[in-house]
Amino acid sequence: MNEQECRLLLSKFSHEVRNPVTLINSFLQLLVKEHPEISSYPFYEKINENMTLLTRLLDEMSRFNNAARLHREETDLCALLSGLADSGNSVLVPQNVHITVNANTDIPHLLLDQTKLLQVFYNLIRNAAEAMPDGGDIRITLTLHETELQVNVANRGPGIPPEYLPDLFEPFVTHKKEGTGLGLSICREIIQAHEGSISVSSSGGNTVFTILLPLSS
């Protein structure tokens, strides 16, 4: 099965499964409304947890299929990331996680899909925060080169085991207990659609995701 056939299959599967999932969720809400006592039952909590996971998987499958569809507009990426960092810092205070954004010079505006890029960096920030249960810093650094912009997202935590690195961006590959295995593959799809690249290095507890975006596209 080639990539196009795989995407078509995922799209059909996501569409066909979403309807009954939506119905089941609706019936569960009606059931609780009629019999509120069941919300305290352990099995009800488990049903809700698994329905949430299934809905999340369907959402991520949809994002994966649509990752390469871009709506580009002139974007100040440094300002965009600074805004994301401000929002993230307010949410991550209880975890003692702090996000900083630094640039080595003035960064020119680029033609980017802002929504998709926010999705990429939100995913990387969330992963970094989860990797630091005791808190720490997430450092986003923008470096301007002659023909491309480099964006590093770095954190210091336990690091990523070397055996996980080769297939880290492959779809449906996850090493998390409740992961869908699509988050980083969606990131790669979005960055590649921008004619860029994303890679990762992890050594001695230092993990760095590196994104390269062309200055002209």
UniProtKB/TrEMBL annotation:
It is an enzyme of class 2 (transferase). It catalyses: ATP + protein L-histidine = ADP + protein N-phospho-L-histidine. SMART domains: HATPase_c. It comes from the Bacteria. The keyword Phosphoprotein applies. Residues 12-217 form the Histidine kinase domain. It holds the Pfam family HATPase_c. Keywords: Kinase, Phosphoprotein, Transferase, Two-component regulatory system. GO terms for molecular function: phosphorelay sensor kinase activity. Its EC number is 2.7.13.3. Coiled coil: none annotated. This is histidine kinase. It comes from Wansuia hejianensis.
